[in-house]
Specification:
The protein is built from ten helices and 14 strands. The protein is α/β, with parallel strands linked by helices and 288 residues long. It folds into two domains: 74 residues, Alpha-Beta Plaits (2-Layer Sandwich), CATH 3.30.70; 202 residues, Vaccinia Virus protein VP39 (Rossmann fold, 3-Layer(aba) Sandwich), CATH 3.40.50.150. The chain is globular.
Length: 288
């Protein structure tokens, strides 16, 4: 970690911003990079990328990609020593996605009745519910629950565990998650206890882990990760699902949808629904 934490900011039109984000995703040296992309000024059509590198090498790699993308203005700013993730998220409003209401401790008094409430605070794991990919997954799941129920649910790359917790809180008797990041699995299990949700999260690499494989085939698989691992894991996700099962895939940009479908459609999946939030996409696929 560098002595002074930095934030890398890029602004420009939508096309170069999305191209730069795709380049970051495609770089194997930046697979753990944390960044966001959103429309900062709708009237002026200005898009913004905010990246929070955790090492000097990561900062240099992100800045190099952004500066090499024509049409982007890039600045690198030093940050004071603080928990910027927790500080920034503490001021965000609750998230409503269908029947789901995701909130933090600072919104304790705003919890409405008659909703499936999920208490997820800012921490070291991804997935507070505010990101467009997580919202898209919850909206797709809410739509499915109007006509279907899911006995066995798997959350691949669980982060905070919000998706598997949502499944457990809506009646799925088996809801498990896996993450290649050990702190994420720990945080997800803590969140399950906080939300009184019967689900288990495991630190594991791949879906062949015995603790994950024992429940296969699953009725529903969430995978809110990045485009590259979504493509890589396509055969494993397909094998983990029962015939007629559903995969909700996200963590990808709209411009990456075709790449994902090229990996999943040949495996017998069909597209049922696509949800967009800003530049992000969530795909609902069903295994024929």
């Amino acid at each position: 970690m560098s002595e002074s934490a930095v934030q890398v900011i890029a602004r420009g039109d939508r096309a170069p911003a999305e191209a730069a984000a795709a380049a970051i995703d495609a770089n194997p040296l930046l697979e753990n990079a944390t960044y966001s992309i959103l429309e900062e000024d709708e009237d002026k059509e200005i898009w913004r990328i905010d990246a929070f590198p955790t090492t000097e090498e990561e900062a240099e790699g992100i800045a190099e990609i952004l500066r090499a993308t024509p049409g982007l203005e890039v600045v690198v700013e030093k940050l004071a020593d603080a928990d910027w993730l927790a500080m920034s998220l503490s001021g965000l409003p609750p998230v409503e996605a269908g029947r789901f209401f995701v909130y933090g401790a600072h919104d304790q008094g705003k919890v409405p009745e008659g909703r499936v409430t999920l208490k997820i605070d800012a921490g070291a794991a991804f997935g507070t519910g505010h990101h467009g990919t997580t919202v898209g997954c919850l909206e797709a799941f809410d739509n499915l629950l109007k006509t279907e129920s899911f006995e066995k649910v798997l959350d691949v790359g669980c982060g905070t565990g919000v998706l598997a917790i949502a499944a457990a809180r809506t009646g799925s008797p088996i809801a498990v998650g896996t993450d290649i990041d050990e702190p994420s699995a720990r945080i997800a299990n803590e969140n399950a206890q906080i939300n009184d949700a019967k689900c288990e999260f495991y630190f594991a690499d791949g879906l062949s882990d015995a603790r994950i494989a024992q429940h296969a085939p699953y009725d529903l698989v969430f995978a809110n990760i990045l485009a590259a691992p979504l493509v890589f894991l396509a055969p494993e996700i397909g094998a983990a699902l029962k015939s007629g099962g559903v995969a909700i895939l996200s963590g990808l940009l709209r411009t990456q949808e075709e790449r994902i479908l090229e990996a999943y459609l040949p495996l017998g999946f069909v597209v049922e629904q696509t949800i967009h939030h800003d530049a992000w996409s969530a795909l609902q696929l069903r295994k024929k």
